[in-house]
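Below is a filled-in request sheet from our internal design queue. Each sheet records the structural input a requester submitted and the sequence that came back. We keep these sheets so that new team members can see what a complete request looks like end to end.

REQUESTER: design group, bay 2
PRIORITY: normal
MODE: inverse folding
CHAIN LENGTH: 575
BACKBONE (tokenized):
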């Protein structure tokens, strides 16, 4: 029997395109059925990003018999729960073949969770990939959109989607991307596909990217046939077009052999009991290990139960302590506590007074500078009584001091006189505390805090943090003090250790440099010439963009240069 999809097409990257209800997901499932049927040892991973559309592979078409033996991670039909922080662990299991057939259901992730999971999943998959893997990405525009939705992890998700599409084939990855919004999918991902299977597309904006792809990959006559029929294709009918495989045919695809759970629901769907392929859930938990433990640890219901238990224990303990104090007050202990409190208050009062004095001095200096700037230059140089008489009156210092004091948090504003109550300064303080007890140069610190050193804001933050005794400088590095660590509080996220995670951290902080840093990390510890590096990332070595990226990486010490040679800094890679 002739396969519905030419086998040579499935050895390439494929894009399944079509509006909702046109049959694109069914065609992609048909391709997976064909792959698993023809090769019992094949490996498939489905990233089901939005609607839990793929669990039906595990049941027969009528839902009465087992289907394909896919493990389902997460979602309403998951064999085990899944958390968005498990991407790294799952990526390694998929890459090494420990999960040969898997459906990663991300329908229950919070906003931004899909991107967070993918950013940890993709780099591990690319680095540790062995053999051949068919990677299906449902609603791929959620991971690699043209227009940003505003999630903090979105830029990196686009980067890794492009990386998988452009470099994955040589690693054994055969990617299938699905989207109903062709106009929203990043051009680099669609352009990396050797084959498109186009179903009905009625919106001109969605037809546009398809037509651009056809112009570059098929003959003029095929282009005309496909373009003219895109808006009127029947459900389940689509064009298979591949320039490399020399395929261009219109196909009425057969029905899938597994359960079509992505079909439009009917009234009796909720009452049906669907029989799925049996799996050993306990074995799967053992395989996943830490990823499942982390998901359990972050389960909201379990966390609420633990909080309730701890709250009850706390209330019980407080009741016992209160009863004990009422029964037998220790007058000596009370006196000692009062004495310690007085001594501590005195010490903190001196510190607070010193801090306020420093703020006042800084305010006075700032006011004098402002006054000087407002005096005409001719008056300063002439020194004549007449000129002095015509000078502009300086602004009132009381007003400037009051304004600065209102903007500056008191070192003892937290209420106990020990921990400063910081506001805007908390952001740079948290960035410095992330490496405690180590320190950072000022350039590294500013980049980690995503602030510009050239502005007055940075200098103000440094001054206030020093006054509050939250930071100190040793040599050319700044360090967070114990007071600073306490003031930063829960806003501190420890910086990753040297290696791929640290590289990813710095890329997220410095715009545009991701491809350059990736290229250098891949070559480490070898040096590379500037010309070779520029060619690898598609930039002109003499251009301003290339020079800017090098400067952005060199300033915080993330790379080192030796004349025309350049490489990652050893500290970044853990050497």
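RETURNED SEQUENCE:
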């Amino acid at each position: 029997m002739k396969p519905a999809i030419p086998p040579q097409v499935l050895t390439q990257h494929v894009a399944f395109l079509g509006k909702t209800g046109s049959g694109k997901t069914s065609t992609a499932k048909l391709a997976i059925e064909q792959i698993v049927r023809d090769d019992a040892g094949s490996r498939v991973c489905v990233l089901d990003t939005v609607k839990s559309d793929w669990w039906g592979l595990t049941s027969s078409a009528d839902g009465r018999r087992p289907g394909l033996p896919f493990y389902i991670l997460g979602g309403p039909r998951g064999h085990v729960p899944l958390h968005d922080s498990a991407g790294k662990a799952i990526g390694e299991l998929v890459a090494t073949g420990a999960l040969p057939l898997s459906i990663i259901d991300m329908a229950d992730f919070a906003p931004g969770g899909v991107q967070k999971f993918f950013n940890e999943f993709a780099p591990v998959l690319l680095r540790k990939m062995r053999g051949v893997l068919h990677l299906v990405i449902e609603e791929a525009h959620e991971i690699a959109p043209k227009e940003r939705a505003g999630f903090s992890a979105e830029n990196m998700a686009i980067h890794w989607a492009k990386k998988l599409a452009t470099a994955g084939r040589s690693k054994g990855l055969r990617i299938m991307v699905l989207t109903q919004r062709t106009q929203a999918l990043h051009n680099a991902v669609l352009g990396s596909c050797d084959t498109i299977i186009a179903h009905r597309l009625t919106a001109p904006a969605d037809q546009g990217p398809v037509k651009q792809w056809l112009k570059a990959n098929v003959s003029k006559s095929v282009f005309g046939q496909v373009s003219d029929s895109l808006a009127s294709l029947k459900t389940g009918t689509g064009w298979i077009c591949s320039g490399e495989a020399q395929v261009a045919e219109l196909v009425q695809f057969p029905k899938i052999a597994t359960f079509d759970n992505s079909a439009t629901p009917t009234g009796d769907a909720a009452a049906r009991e669907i029989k799925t392929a049996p799996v050993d859930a306990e074995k799967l938990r053992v395989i996943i290990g830490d990823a499942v433990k982390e998901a359990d640890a972050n389960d909201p219901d379990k966390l609420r139960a633990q909080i309730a238990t701890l709250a009850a224990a706390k209330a019980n303990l407080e009741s016992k302590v209160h009863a004990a104090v009422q029964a037998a007050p220790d007058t000596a202990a009370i006196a000692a506590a009062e004495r310690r409190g007085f001594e501590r208050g005195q010490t903190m009062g001196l510190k607070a007074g010193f801090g306020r004095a420093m703020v006042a001095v800084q305010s006075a200096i700032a006011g004098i500078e402002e006054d000087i700037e407002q005096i005409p230059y001719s008056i300063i140089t002439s020194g004549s009584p007449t000129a002095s008489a015509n000078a502009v009156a300086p602004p009132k210092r009381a007003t400037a001091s009051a304004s600065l004091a209102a903007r500056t948090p008191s070192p003892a504003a937290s209420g106990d006189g020990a921990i400063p109550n910081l506001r805007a300064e908390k952001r740079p303080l948290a960035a410095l505390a992330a490496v405690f007890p180590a320190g950072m140069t000022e350039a590294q610190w500013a980049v980690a805090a995503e602030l510009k050193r050239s502005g007055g804001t940075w200098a103000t933050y440094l001054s206030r943090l020093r006054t509050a005794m939250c930071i100190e400088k040793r040599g050319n590095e700044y360090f967070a003090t114990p007071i600073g660590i306490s003031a930063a509080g829960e806003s501190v996220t420890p910086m990753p250790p040297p290696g791929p995670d640290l590289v990813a951290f710095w890329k997220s902080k410095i715009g545009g440099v991701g491809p350059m840093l990736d290229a250098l990390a891949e070559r480490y510890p070898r040096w590379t010439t500037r010309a070779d590096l520029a060619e690898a990332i598609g930039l002109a070595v003499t251009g301003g963009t290339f020079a800017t990226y090098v400067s952005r990486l060199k300033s915080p010490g993330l790379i080192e240069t030796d004349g025309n040679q350049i490489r990652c800094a050893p500290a970044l890679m853990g050497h």
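SHEET NOTES:
- The radius of gyration is 32 Å.
- The longest helix spans residues 331-374.
FILED BY: M.R.
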